[in-house]
Design a protein that fits this description.
Largest interface: A-B, 45 and 47 residues
CATH architecture of chain A: 2-Layer Sandwich
Order of helices and strands of chain B: EEEHHHHHEEHHHHHHEEEHHHH
Strand content of chain A: 15-25%
Helix content of chain A: 10-25%
Number of strands of chain A: 6
Radius of gyration of chain B: 21 Å
Oligomer: heterodimer
Shape of chain B: globular
Radius of gyration of chain A: 20 Å
Strand order of the largest sheet of chain B: 1-2-3
CATH class of chain A: Alpha Beta
Chain lengths: ~200, ~375
């Protein structure tokens, strides 16, 4: 993540003398270690190079997989490894990266008392398959990801906005959506005021 | 298809809310009805959406702590606790033991106050007016403690990243102890008033059943999951803030209906009071703030940290890019996920039962919509 600069460089820096412009040092990175266990070996055996990495950071384990392998892995984890509780589905936007979004699935297993994350990187416009066939709870969680990031899940039974008004333009949690931005036409038409700011 | 007779009724689509006293805020439920029977529901939410996650990306870590209190505003302390723990994990610091014990006391008092508010309004929903006044009387005791501790009653901003800002006031521990003495007899009073009450049982037994399997499939946590018989509580499963040092029971139900959820929450209040008393009796001395830099700049990385909030698992997924502001804050609200199971519980129920079912989920719309 160190190579992901903020889209709006707003970190105020002290005025630098023009003679010696220095590149800011890269931000420190939390140490990450490879994650190895019986589970990762089983996953490696079953999915091979579809899983790109197994990592532990801050004592929390996650794996990064190719987008098309996500649903099979979720299904495998649920049926074979007792990860039967999908805690959360969310996304992170990295607009400078070719694969723009990180899609994050947080999983928990009651039987193992273990929490892992499944991550995948997807480009803009890619329609990841829905996880609703594996976990019912993905329904609203994926709708929220669609609402906030504009990631459309293919095969989702009800791919509509959930928190924002249905006709709203833009996806608020994308990094290129300024915090001051709003759908002014919608605000004028529906609220009868010039601006909501 | 058979000839329609005068006994058949046509399906009707009806709007409940967003302005409706039993939806506990601005929840709109579109109902498909066959007479009094609910055939399907569709929740329309987002009326209270304030973009809390977007705000998080535009504030520093310390500035964002008071914002999270506005998610579940009747249990603000739990929200703050979750976010502070997440930021502390990113920084690699831990609050000192005394700060952790005070945090536990305040978090458990919040649990009691949240459950008391739920009890009062839930009873009001299903026709009992009096309990609301009783529960608000008890809740006031807790609000007073909060007010004396940090100056605010609801959106407390009680915790800081790395510990606490305020040392406790002089009578803090005594007042917590006397509250724990005072509460159980009041709960017994509720028991006599409500637990064996035929009308209440009639309104809650076998209403809104959600079994353990469905709970897991829908990601439902908290008292709803425990009422379905799953003995799972994050404070026990993955202890944080020193919960492993306290002795408490995890109450469970059997049938997973509204009545079991009522019993589970009643017992949780007793257990929370037990924890408060233990924490007050074993309160360590020492600093209340860990060594945290003035400017909080966690190294780049990401964490998911969750706590057992009164409503269920409250999680924070925080991504840091090494700057002073979080790159991404995701709040995983228990109410939002639990509300999703409404349709499953409501199908086939009566409209009057729907009111009880919405109440039993214990939603706070501030948290659903964020």
């Amino acid at each position: 993540m160190a190579d992901q600069p903020k889209p709006e460089g707003k970190a105020p820096t002290a005025p630098v003398p023009p003679a010696a412009p220095k590149a800011p040092p890269p931000p420190p990175q939390a140490p990450a270690t490879p994650w190895e266990s019986g589970l990762t070996r089983a996953l490696k055996e079953r999915f091979g190079d579809q899983i790109l990495e197994f990592t532990a950071q801050h004592g929390q384990e996650f794996l990064v997989a190719k987008p098309e392998a996500v649903i099979p892995i979720l299904g495998y984890l649920k049926s074979e490894a007792a990860f039967d509780y999908l805690v959360d589905v969310t996304a992170v936007d990295y607009p400078k990266r070719a694969e723009r979004f990180d899609l994050v699935y947080v999983l928990y297993s009651f039987a193992r008392n273990q929490r892992i994350r499944l991550k995948t990187r997807i480009p803009e416009g890619y329609q990841p398959p829905t996880a609703t066939d594996v976990h019912l709870t993905a329904d609203w969680l994926e709708r929220e990801v669609f609402d906030m990031f504009g990631i459309e899940f293919s095969g989702h039974p009800n791919m509509r906005r959930i928190l924002m008004p249905e006709e709203w333009e833009g996806y608020p949690l994308r990094k290129d959506y300024s915090i001051l931005r709003q759908d002014e036409a919608w605000v004028r038409q529906n609220l009868g005021i010039e601006s909501a700011q | 298809m058979a000839e329609p007779t005068f006994l058949d009724s046509t399906e009707m689509v009806l709007n409940m809310g967003p302005q409706h006293p039993s939806t506990h805020g601005v929840l709109r439920v579109i109902l498909k009805l066959d007479g009094e029977r609910v055939r399907g529901t569709d929740c329309v939410i987002g009326y209270l959406h304030r973009g809390l996650e977007k705000i998080g990306e535009n504030r520093t870590y310390a500035m964002y702590v008071p914002y999270v209190d506005r998610a579940d505003y009747v249990a603000a302390v739990s929200n703050g606790l979750g976010f502070c723990l997440a930021a502390e994990k990113l920084l690699g610091v831990e609050a000192p033991p005394r700060a952790q014990a005070i945090r536990v006391i305040l978090a458990e008092l919040t649990r009691i106050s949240s459950h008391l508010l739920w009890l009062g309004t839930h009873c009001l929903d299903i026709g009992a007016t009096t309990p609301l006044f009783y529960t608000f009387r008890e809740r006031e005791f807790i609000m007073d403690i909060f007010e004396k501790y940090c100056g605010a009653r609801l959106t407390t901003h009680a915790f800081r990243i790395g510990g606490l800002q305020y040392e406790t006031y002089d009578e803090f521990l005594d007042e917590c102890r006397s509250f724990c003495e005072w509460l159980p007899p009041k709960l017994e009073e509720y028991d006599r008033l409500l637990t064996g009450n035929r009308i209440l049982i009639g309104r809650m037994r076998e209403v809104g059943i959600l079994n353990a399997e469905d709970c897991k499939a829908y990601g439902v946590t908290g008292p709803m999951l425990r009422a379905a018989g799953v003995k799972w509580d994050l404070r026990r499963a993955q202890p944080y803030s020193g919960y492993e040092n306290y002795d408490f029971e995890i109450p469970t139900g059997e049938r997973g209906d509204t009545y079991d959820r009522y019993l589970v929450r009643m017992e949780e209040m007793r257990q929370a009071a037990r924890i408060v008393r233990q924490a007050a009796d074993s309160m360590p001395d020492g600093p209340i703030m860990a060594k945290v830099p003035k400017v909080i700049k966690p190294p780049a990385g990401e964490v998911y940290v969750s706590v057992e909030a009164p409503k269920g698992e409250l999680g924070y997924f925080v991504v840091s890019d090494g700057s002073t502001q979080p790159y991404r804050v995701r709040i995983r609200p228990p109410s939002f996920v639990n509300l999703q199971a409404l349709d499953r519980m409501a199908r086939g129920a009566l409209v009057a039962d729907l009111v009880a079912i919405i109440g039993t989920i214990d939603i706070v719309l501030g948290e659903v919509d964020r």
